[in-house]
Design a protein that fits this description.
The complex is a heterodimer. Chain A has 21 helices and 22 strands. Chain A is an alpha+beta fold. The longest helix of chain A has 32 residues. The chains are: A alpha+beta, B mainly alpha.
């Protein structure tokens, strides 16, 4: 080849390369400098995304560390109707996979004005994954946390529930919302065309909710619920409530209302079954309240346990004549016998000696008429009439537990004070929140240790062959307690002659109390007396609890006479 | 020299990219493992529910809860 021709070709190649380079440079300048801001915005829109990373909700554990409420993975299925190509197919397949009615999904998928419709929130992740694998255009999926209650009905009224947005709606889920709910995080990320994250521009990590440890024991709670359920069924009652307290600490070991419900299906259950009636509802305590009257009279030295009274069969108080539940002739009884036999006449006689002002102040001192401060939302303070508004007959009602409304937890706390040598402790459900010290438990002395001991002795007399609570006896253990049978208010006025609340509050072992157990059965049929309806339920709960917590018998002699009955 | 530096920059960017992809995957794994853990904890809680165990023991093994009278406590202080 001639050198001249070669030079020409080289020059031509150089010119072409120079031109190409110039064009490339010009294009690069155009893109990188002139159009840079606009393209950068466009790129950011297409590849950058700021996503919220939801914070997981704290787990609620019982005192043994067993989860009672926990967050589980779920998948929310949604559709973009504008992207949907075959609405009929999606409706049928989603309906089949997620147990939905296709006829309800189909019209939503046809609504092209919307770009987002829920197909199913918090669906089962495996079913959703199976649906996702079918690759239906317009259908999309994202993970969400679903609140689950693995023990179903156990402590359901106490736990409450969290809603579809994972916020507490009722019970402790609501009351502990500030601890359980965490703080969501955010992430600004850059994705490649395949949706993979290639850069994290900025990130604020989520802060998960704190775990909460309750004082409840799931085994004892389940037993209490079982006993309560069978008692309500046996007596065809409208309902029942039970509370188990540790008198030394104020810890609530079990708290239940029957009928119960499965917290996983809260939406299908009437709200009346969802209330934690031990805290939110009141009842007239009847004779279980007499312990307060006698505690007041003993402390103010109006009587001693051995003071004797000759009691008529009935007593006139203002316009009312009140007699004992069981008809009897005129009798002489000691104060201890009056409590053991639950004499209305005797209790009112003592209350009249005490006077309404002193009795009123003792009612307040025991915590009635005000909230206990238990860490559960919606607590009722109960209803007590100010002494100034007492009528002439009130001194005949209140000392025997009529004309006053209390919550079961108030009554259990009052008996716990007697069991705890006279010191009232605030009942509580939360032991501690993870990462925080346990809250200090409020306490105050109600009666002296000596008076508490005297009353414990008198209450042991109730659970004897002479007392009204013999059915509450637990073989091998000393039991102190009191029966209650209160007629309910009739909506038409006055007291009902058919509807009663039968209750029993007991302390076991009486010599070194481990439990206070309150059982209240609402509107039992066939029998109405607390000693017949509620005392056996107390016995079954106490017997199980003592064996479960391995409390040795304090009265082994009574075991020899006992006829065994299974705990189950 | 410039070529080496440019190659280093490219190599570093590729490494960062790979790490980011790996980080994203690890993040997903973390979420999935947490979910699996919660699922297992939930199943464990359901399985260890006292009422369920008692019912199974009675039904499958035919055992009965012990009587209080049959429980003997030993006092180790004596």
């Amino acid at each position: 080849m001639a050198p001249r021709l070669a030079n020409r070709r080289i020059r031509l190649l150089l010119a072409v390369l120079t031109l190409a380079f110039a064009v490339t440079f010009a294009r690069a300048f155009w893109l990188q400098v002139v159009r840079a801001p606009k393209l950068e915005r466009l790129a950011a829109q297409q590849h950058r995304e700021t996503i919220t990373t939801p914070a997981s909700r704290g787990t609620i554990y019982d005192r043994t560390g067993s989860p009672l409420a926990i967050g589980e993975e779920a998948t929310t299925v949604y559709a973009d109707p504008r992207q949907v190509q075959n609405a009929r197919k999606i409706a049928v397949e989603a309906g089949h996979a997620l147990d939905l009615d296709p006829n309800k999904i189909y019209p939503q998928l046809l609504d092209k004005k919307r770009s987002f419709v829920y197909v199913k929130r918090k669906a089962d992740p495996e079913r959703a994954a199976a649906l996702e694998r079918r690759g239906l255009a317009g259908l999309d999926f994202y993970p969400e946390e679903r609140r689950s209650y693995p023990q179903h009905s156990v402590a359901s009224q106490v736990l409450g529930y969290a809603g579809v947005d994972n916020t507490g709606i009722a019970g402790l889920e609501l009351g502990l919302e500030r601890y359980l709910s965490g703080t969501p995080g955010t992430q600004t990320i850059v994705r490649d065309p395949f949706g993979r994250t290639i850069d994290v521009v900025s990130s604020t990590p989520e802060r998960p909710g704190r775990d909460v440890f309750l004082t409840l024991d799931h085994t004892l709670q389940a037993k209490v619920e079982s006993v309560l359920r069978s008692t309500v069924e046996k007596w065809h009652a409208a309902g029942g409530t039970a509370v188990v307290l540790d008198p030394k600490t104020g810890a609530v070991l079990a708290m239940s209302s029957a009928p119960g419900f499965d917290a996983n299906n809260f939406a299908k259950v009437p709200s009346s079954l969802q209330r934690n009636r031990a805290v939110t509802d009141t009842y007239e305590p009847g004779s279980t309240f007499k312990a307060v009257t006698y505690a007041a009279a003993l402390t103010d030295k109006v009587v001693t346990p051995n003071t004797t009274f000759t009691l008529q069969p009935s007593i006139q108080v203002a316009d009312r004549r009140i007699s004992d539940a069981e008809p009897r002739p005129t009798e002489t009884m000691t104060v201890a016998e009056m409590l053991a036999r639950s004499s209305n006449v005797g209790t009112i006689t003592v209350a009249e000696l005490l006077g309404k002002r002193r009795l009123g102040s003792w009612i307040e001192r025991f915590g009635f008429g005000k909230k206990t401060g238990i860490d559960f939302p919606g607590e009722s303070p109960g209803i007590t009439l100010p002494v100034d508004r007492w009528s002439g007959s009130t001194i005949g009602n209140v000392p025997i537990g009529q004309g006053i409304a209390v919550t079961p937890v108030q009554m259990a706390a009052a008996y716990a004070a007697l069991a705890n040598k006279g010191v009232w402790l605030q009942p509580h459900l939360v032991d501690h929140v993870r990462g925080r010290s346990p809250e200090k438990v409020a306490r105050h002395r109600v009666v002296s240790p000596a008076i508490a001991q005297e009353l414990m002795g008198m209450l042991q007399g109730v659970v004897s062959t002479q007392g009204t609570g013999g059915e509450a006896a637990v073989p091998g253990y000393t039991v102190a307690g009191k029966t209650g049978t209160a007629s309910k208010l009739d909506p038409r006025g006055g007291y009902s002659h058919t509807d009663y609340v039968a209750s029993f509050v007991g302390i076991v072992p009486a010599s070194a109390p481990k439990f206070v157990v309150l059982v209240a059965i609402d509107e039992p049929r066939g029998q109405i007396f607390g000693g017949v309806v509620a005392a056996p339920a107390f016995r079954d709960i106490a017997r199980f609890g003592l064996q479960y917590l391995e409390v040795p018998p304090d009265d082994p002699a009574s075991l020899k006479d006992a006829v065994g009955a299974p705990l189950g | 020299m410039i070529g080496v530096l440019l190659a280093g920059v490219v190599f570093m960017n590729v490494a960062v990219l790979r790490l980011n992809i790996r980080l994203d995957q690890v993040g997903r794994d973390r979420v999935r493992l947490r979910a699996d853990n919660a699922q297992l904890a939930s199943q464990l809680s359901s399985a260890q529910a006292a009422a369920r165990i008692q019912a199974l023991a009675q039904k499958k093994l035919g055992v009965q809860p012990a009587l209080a009278q049959e429980t003997t406590y030993l006092n180790l202080n004596k």
